[in-house]
Write a structure and sequence with these properties.
Helices cover about 15% and strands about 35% of the residues. It is mainly β.
Length: about 300
């Protein structure tokens, strides 16, 4: 089965003139790139992004460009067909992404998303009027004609509550808006979660993608997040790193349990709490001494 709006692994099945066709045994699609990657031949398998493309019939299209954000010809003149590209877009169907508006026309706003043809946000899918050059959080979807489109009305696709995630689970995060408590983030493209300000020791920007962890599922089923791996496994890994760093620096490091969180994060990418647990474990093993401004190998 070929899935529209997703990456598919398809075999190069034939060349016909300038056209190259890919297939999976039951269906074929046209390779829009018009050129195979270097050293690729008929019979090889490619990972490609599949979408619905539109072209004018031959009697109208000779020498004319493909449908685009600047095209104003009636939609009923265009013929649909499946197409594929070896390029990877910034988002697939079902993903939420932070994308820039490249242009506006009578149909809506067009977003840059890593493919030659921009992604349309119809006017009906815009919460507010969009502007060229600005970035927006959008969700990619297929419309009723299997065409790729995007919407800024993402709240309807996201839940505030979850019983499916577990504390300690690794998740993908997309940074959204700042609040009085911290920063809201989209979890695995499906849920809202919260990163609390007092646990953030690095700058975060809207649209930024990064990995995080489920800190806890609260009694109201809302999700608290952390950028740091919970549990003692993280501490054990950090103790090895600290020992190695001490050995590299002649047994001295100008950090301690009194150091500011920002300095600790800059050095090791962890919270002050995790750092204190790690040096505490090393101190109990009598491997280091802890001073006001430094730690030392014993």
């Amino acid at each position: 089965m070929i899935t529209i709006g997703k990456l598919n692994k398809l075999k190069v099945v034939k060349r016909q003139g300038a056209n190259i066709y890919l297939g999976n045994g039951t269906s074929t699609v046209l390779l829009a790139d018009k050129k195979l990657p270097e050293n690729c031949q008929v019979g090889d398998v490619l990972e490609v992004f599949v979408y619905v493309d539109y072209d004018l019939p031959a009697r109208l299209s000779a020498g004319e460009p493909d449908v685009s954000r600047s095209d104003t010809r009636p939609a009923n003149l265009w013929q649909r067909h499946l197409a594929a590209t070896v390029r990877t877009p910034l988002a697939e169907v079902g993903n939420i992404a932070w994308l820039k508006v490249a242009a506006l026309n009578y149909a809506g706003a067009f977003l840059e998303w890593g493919l030659p043809k921009d992604l349309l946000v119809p006017f009906s899918e815009q919460r507010h009027e969009m502007e060229v050059g600005k970035y927006y959080l959008v969700k990619v979807f297929l419309d009723d004609k299997k065409r790729l489109a995007a919407t800024t009305r993402i709240d309807g696709f996201l839940s505030d509550e979850s019983v499916y995630f577990k504390a300690g689970q690794k998740v993908s995060l997309l940074i959204a808006d700042k609040t009085e408590l911290g920063v809201k983030a989209i979890v695995n493209n499906t849920h809202w979660g919260m990163l609390y300000q007092n646990e953030l020791f690095q700058p975060l920007s809207k649209g930024q993608k990064l990995e995080g962890y489920i800190k806890q599922i609260r009694d109201d089923h809302k999700i608290d997040l952390s950028l740091y791996q919970p549990g003692y496994g993280k501490v054990e890994s950090l103790t090895d790193t600290i020992l190695a760093r001490l050995q590299e620096n002649h047994g001295v490091m100008m950090l301690s349990d009194k150091s500011p969180p920002e300095a600790i994060y800059a050095a090791f990418g962890v919270s002050k709490k995790v750092f204190k647990q790690a040096i505490g474990a090393l101190y109990k093993k009598k491997l280091i001494s802890i001073d006001k401004n430094s730690i030392r190998l014993i």
